[in-house]
């Protein structure tokens, strides 16, 4: 029982005529190279040729002038606006490559996976914004729960960032009396944020550190940074 398959007819425009009336019902089939090249040439010509009423010829010198004007406006915009805000936006789009692993200073530490130049934003200290009263309550609760280290960072007199249970890699940065970074409070959209800046050039696999600047207290916390000018205590 052999049935003769009907010959595939072609329409006036060169495309194959479908026997069933629907291309999807006939499954996969090959297209001749001639038909494929004809279709590709027509689509390219249509894409490359703009409408007649929109064809505008620009002189190369005008294009170069526009680019130089854009660079001049960008440089003036950068100089007039807050550089911290621009750097913070750049940090959001292109984050630094960092990793946390065991540190010789204390427990875990944060290390650079790429070279970082001086005076660059390294990472934002992320956590929950709480008031001083809540911070005191949480500190006692953390001690009762056996959490030895609390990751609280003071923003101002009323606001504290708590990254103990809700934070990012920035909470793993260790203290050093001779740090390669420093912390700075910036304002973004009327909200204060803590950002870690590079104090000097940081090499790959170098640990990121900053000075905690704890207030002076009677009960001292030993410092294990091991730098030449180590103060011996964090507070």
Automatic annotation (TrEMBL):
Protein name: SET1B methyltransferase
Keyword annotations: Chromatin regulator, Methyltransferase, Nucleus, RNA-binding, S-adenosyl-L-methionine, Transcription, Transcription regulation, Transferase
UniProt key word Transferase: yes
Record domain Post-SET: where: 219-235
GO molecular function: histone H3K4 methyltransferase activity; RNA binding
Compartments it resides in: Nucleus
BP terms from Gene Ontology: methylation
One Pfam family here: N-SET
Keyword Transcription regulation: yes
Gene behind this protein: Setd1b_0
Positions of region (Disordered): 48-68
Domain SET, first and last residues per copy: 96-213
Organism whose genome encodes this protein: Dromas ardeola
Gene Ontology cellular-component annotations: Set1C/COMPASS complex
